[in-house]
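Now produce a polypeptide, keeping tokens residue-aligned:
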Amino acid sequence: MCVVCGCGQPEGAPGGVAGEAPVVAPGTGDLHFGAGAARVSVPGMSAERAIRLEADVLGENNRQAAANRAHFLAHGVTALNLVSSPGSGKTTLLAATIEALRRRTPATAVAVIEGDQQTSNDADRIRATGAPAIQVNTGKGCHLDAPMVAAAFARLPLHGHEHGPGDGHGHAHPHPHEHAHAHGHAHEHAHGHGPHEHDHGLDHGHGHAHAHTHAQGRMQGQAHDRAHAQGLAHEHGQGHHHHDPAALLFIENVGNLVCPALWDLGEAAKVVILSVTEGEDKPLKYPDMFAAARAMVLHKVDLLPYVDFDVARCIEYARRVNPAIEVLLVSARSGQGLDAWLDWILEAAHQTAHHGGVPAKAAPGTVSPEAAATEAALRRRIEELEAALAAARMGVEASRHS
């Protein structure tokens, strides 16, 4: 049960209201829980205690996340945290991504950490591709946390990957235990190979938006023009090159658009996956997740002719929450947009390996926009928590003297 996010309410609470009273909207009578100082209502728990718990638990998690991040960098691993609601097609997209990466960058080691409440179904699907995977079952937990990821990473072949001084990492991390290699290229990393050139042909021209990847069906006409004008994804200049990344770690989080937004796992970036079979207003309903994500993958775009989904409006909503979010349109089934998705992954890995996540043009010593935004959001939240805790304490003191 996740106490911090308040998603676990014991049965039998009178009317579901044993914690903070809701704010009632005039006219409609809609109830807004979590509108108080703690921004969450937990039965039987005061706002002061909820604030204290959140600060304690997230603080400990963030310390482990920082250790994970340093560990990944030392091993030449770029970690991506894939988040979505259940049924978005994360595992299907991930399996297709692994197969496509093997064709494009065969020297790159790939591994996966799978998060679910129960079963090893998704990890089994990933292992079937030849990539090593560790299943993390959270029980009643609604998200992965940094210690879980650290424990899973220690059991993956990537954890035994070594970098010498010539690789610019200066970190050797041999282990006495042996890892089972699920695919033959797990540790064959040639850092001295030449640059990998992306083929940006007619199917995938860069320097403009990715809306052209769905130039049929619902993307024709006005919706196409609006989405195209807004710019659906990151842009690469022509002749863009970079070396194959040493290793990629995909973390498929528990299907949930609420709790995983708050939990740093040590990843280089969060990627939110939204299926076109869902509502285009998801970014507004679950703003914390889309605000925390560096990129949004609109998945199952091959189904656009058959569903009522406004692509341009969805992107507008996502950018209303997060103006810097990058957007890609992808179908794992048809392969549509898959090359653009690989380009994005490889560029993210390039930035992480050579600039600590900072784009190549950033000045030395600067931090990435994603890291700066995350830090600013955390600082604001800490200030809110401190102010709320002070107010709660004042209320307690006032009640004692009344």
In short: The chain is about 35% helix and 15% strand. The radius of gyration is 22 Å.
